[in-house]
Amino acid sequence: MVGENFPNCIMTERPSAGMVVLRTLLLGIFCVVIGWLAAVQAKLGMVPGVVTGAAIFGIGSFALLRLAGAPGSLWVTFGIKFFSVTAYKIVTVVLVSYLVKDCGLKDTSAQWLFGVWGMFMSVATLLSGSLTDVLGLRKTLLAGVLLCLVSRVLMLVSVNPYVVLVLGMVPLAVGEALCTPVLVAATRRFTDTSQRSVAFSVFYAILNLGFMVGYFVRDGVQQGGPVAVWGMEFSVQRVLFAVSFGIELLVLPLVLLMRDRSVEGLAMVPVAGFRAAVGQTAGMFRTMVEHPGFRRLLVFLLMIGILKIVFNIMDAVLPTFAEREIGGEGAARVGRLNAVNSILILVLAPAVGMMTRRYSAYAMVIFGGFITALSFVFLALPPGWFAGVTAGPVGEWIGRGYLELKGTVHPYLVMILFWQVVFSVGEAFYSPRVYEYAVAIAPKGQEASYASLSAVPLLMGKMINSALFGTMLSRFCPAEGPRNSSLMWLIGGLLVLAAPLGLLVLQPYIRVKEEGR
């Protein structure tokens, strides 16, 4: 039967007991692999590996039961998300090194180009949603995946910076931008209101799972070194592009499995079909901007952009801060510290989504925002206050066990890990619900247009982080001279606090009714 909340797909019957057992068995095998990766490849130890694998198995089993009536296209969507985000993360963690070591750019030029590339991708994502609503889910995904594949091949075979920029990085950004709102819209389209919070939490957990696997793949390839093929030597960076290409290639058969009946009239034919798509896309985007809830949603997303600076701090600020305050060995452990966030979100996002599915997305965003702001207390306090914890069993486990340090365990390492843990809890409450909120208020047929607006916070986060923390690092945490890093983190925490406070105060003016609430 065709369900009211599944306009473009056929509801599936509840699986038999045998099918449930088979799915649970496959999930168990998958979780064993994840546990092994965490314990061995990430060198977290046996206990964290077992706990991570067991937690994913428990949450995954519950998700299988809660989403049992959802169509197969939802599970296809989850598979596409995992492979695409893993391939994307591999590119992002190696791109700067590739630009410096293979293309010959200077460090400053590579960092600048990486930042502009990220902002361009965010803007492209914002504009791509309306195109998705015109072409449909599968056609847009197919176009995006093909762009991603071709651009990776060009970056694999060429080291000319101009070729890489024009024919590699730009098409890759557009391809990734086309895929992002499609998968958010598909998650909404293939679930009903009772399943949606769980589905979006699982969706967000898969995002973090892909990030974690991407880090593991990067470490494995790095240890293997350059590879020679047919007399040609390929650097580690280009080998990673090849691996990323292979993972992205796995998305293609899944795209073909996705059922999408939302668009029947537009065939992807040369010129005429393209002109029709562009015309309808412009009309769709204009309709979205003129919608009464658009401006209120935009203010909401701008506030979320302040929360999103946390992720830019992890990648752009924390390594420099750690090197200056802790030293080289501490800076070399920043990746492992950042991995704490991905591991925790794998467990927390689905669990929190299940526990809070009866509450509105807006309320949970405010609650999670306050927890995220509170986490900065651990970085703003004087390091001396954590000397006792660092010298005790907790500091010993963090320094000698998880981080495998040889030298002295600095209090900042413990403080950073505590910060990661607390803001991960806040992230589990607010971040998946941002996707849900954006599509929950979308008019029928414009889900992808509104889902694309989820790129606004990422764009704002990049802009705020670049404008604020670049200056604050030089002023409060310089390479030489006196430092006041605690004040830098206090300012950052107060800035993040402005987001949930703003959402709370502006609630009567910007909050819109969510579907099913």
Number of domains: 3
General shape: globular
Rg to the nearest angstrom? 23 Å
For the record, the CATH architecture of the largest domain stands as: Up-down Bundle
Beginning-to-end CA distance, first to last residue: 25 Å
Determine the mean pLDDT. Answer: 77
Secondary structure tally: strands: 2
What share of the residues lie within helices? over 70%
Order of helices and strands: HHHHHHHEEHHHHHHHHHHHHHHHH
* CATH C-level class of the largest domain: Mainly Alpha
CATH topology of the largest domain: the name is Growth Hormone, Chain: A
Full CATH superfamily name of the largest domain: MFS general substrate transporter like domains
Q: Give the strand content.
A: under 5%
Largest sheet: 2 strands, antiparallel
Low-pLDDT segments? 1-11, 262-274
Strand order of the largest sheet: 1-2
What class, by secondary structure content?
A: mainly alpha
Task: Figure out the total of helices.
Answer: 23
Outline the fold blueprint.
Blueprint: H1 17-41, H2 46-66, H3 72-101, H4 107-135, H5 137-157, H6 161-189, H7 196-224, E1 227-229, E2 232-234, H8 236-249, H9 251-257, H10 272-290, H11 294-307, H12 309-325, H13 328-331, H14 334-355, H15 361-374, H16 377-380, H17 387-391, H18 393-402, H19 411-440, H20 447-451, H21 455-476, H22 485-505, H23 507-510
Antiparallel strand pairs: 1-2
Helix pairs in contact: 1-2, 2-14, 3-4, 3-6, 3-7, 3-8, 3-9, 4-5, 4-6, 4-10, 4-21, 5-6, 5-8, 5-9, 7-8, 7-14, 7-19, 11-21, 11-22, 12-21, 14-19, 15-19, 15-22, 18-19, 21-22
